[in-house]
């Protein structure tokens, strides 16, 4: 589980709110993992993955428009990372989910949480830094 903290703020309210939403979606995957009463999690996993992918596309569009609007010099490297993240989500093999649902959810969490947190702290923070 990943908790939102002020360290993740980049100072652009719309983008910060969207980052919070990404945390919320990944936390729902964690909650699903912890749900001992839900035996077959397949459709819920698929729903979370689809929502994460769709919301990420929406968020990246907003973030990229903001970067272009301020003439951000590192736009292209950000765009490449964004595209790679979306591709990773798009390339998920839904047939493999049923092999070990909890393991799959852990894989999603590991990838998404680490990528999102690292990307915000090391890349997105630079968008609004004065350096």
TrEMBL record:
UniProt keyword list: Iron, Metal-binding
Protein's UniProt keywords contain Cell wall biogenesis/degradation: no
Q: Would you say which domain of life the source belongs to? A: Bacteria
- Location of the Hemerythrin-like domain: 11-127
Single GO MF descriptor? metal ion binding
Recorded family membership: Belongs to the hemerythrin family.
User: Which PANTHER family does the protein's record reference?
Assistant: BACTERIOHEMERYTHRIN
Task: Name the NCBIfam families on file.
Answer: bact_hemeryth, hemeryth_dom
* The protein's name: Bacteriohemerythrin
